[in-house]
Design goal:
- There is one protein chain.
- A two-stranded antiparallel sheet has the order 1-2.
- The protein has helices at 7-26, 28-34, 48-51, 59-80, 82-117, 122-126, 137-154, 162-175, 192-209, 217-234; strands at 180-181, 190-191.
- It starts with 6 loop residues before the first helix and ends in an 8-residue tail after the last helix.
- Strand 1 and strand 2 form a beta hairpin.
- Helix 4 (59-80) runs parallel beside helix 8 (162-175), helix 5 packs antiparallel against helix 10 (217-234) and helix 8 packs parallel to helix 10 (217-234).
- The chain is an all-alpha fold.
């Protein structure tokens, strides 16, 4: 059955599984090297914008992503062709990285402004210099609280193929809107053109509200947005693809 999967989808799944096994064996060091950090973090490297798409945090994470890709990817690979399918996948992953970190940038600017108002030298801290807290006890407590939030953005990496796969799902929903899929806890199949907007709205809410539970929901939105835009531009030429 696995050999019947179109080659690009199959190879993406294989690479993800291999990278997951390697990172599980080698541990945190390789995760820090290949996961995607905030672009202005001292831990960021340019290649992370690609390599993070092949990293996963748990067995359930990679299983869910690869099963979703297995469900939607082959149809798109066959209808769009190799080149456009690859563009769709990686452009969606980059869109996920961009939107997620655009929101991170907004939050970092807000936190940095509050810290500077309290007399804390954010620029020196971000460059690795030793910085002392300033002010009275309440001000120091507030600085520590804000610094914890800043560290959470700067030092927490993003991993996973979810952004790229959300782009694939969004493209599928755009090109085949009346296709029905079964979802856990929903007794009847639902058309993807109804399901996708619900998922996107929920992801936007969770991403902006801070109730994401450690999931980069805005990355999902960024991937879906790119997938939707690409599929929309290609839709009228769908049957010309081979």
């Amino acid at each position: 059955m696995f050999n019947n999967i179109p080659p690009i989808t199959r190879n993406i799944i294989i690479i993800n599984v291999i990278v997951f096994i390697i990172t599980s064996l080698l541990g945190d060091k390789i995760v820090e090297y290949l996961a995607a950090f905030y672009p202005f973090s001292p831990f960021f490297h340019s290649w992370q914008v690609i390599t993070h798409m092949f990293m996963h945090g748990s067995i359930m994470h990679i299983l869910f992503n690869m099963m979703t890709l297995f469900s939607f990817g082959p149809i798109l690979e066959q209808s769009l062709g190799d080149r456009k399918y690859l563009i769709l996948y990686f452009a969606s992953g980059l869109g996920a990285f961009f939107l997620f970190n655009l929101w991170n940038f907004v939050e970092v600017q807000q936190i940095s402004g509050e810290l500077q108002q309290l007399g804390f030298n954010v620029n020196a801290y971000m460059s690795g210099a030793s910085v002392e807290f300033a002010g009275n006890a309440d001000a120091i407590l507030k600085q520590k609280e804000l610094l914890g939030s800043l560290k959470g953005i700067v030092a927490t990496p993003m991993v996973g193929a979810s952004g790229a796969i959300f782009g694939v799902v969004a493209a599928f929903a755009t090109l085949y809107p009346d296709s029905k899929i079964g979802i856990m806890f929903i007794p009847v199949p639902i058309k993807v053109k109804y399901l996708l907007p619900i998922i996107v709205v929920v992801s936007v809410y969770l991403g902006l509200s801070g109730n994401g539970g450690g999931i980069a929901h805005l990355a999902h939105v960024g991937g879906a947005l790119v997938g939707w835009l690409l599929a929309l531009s290609w839709k009228k030429h769908l049957y010309r693809f081979n």
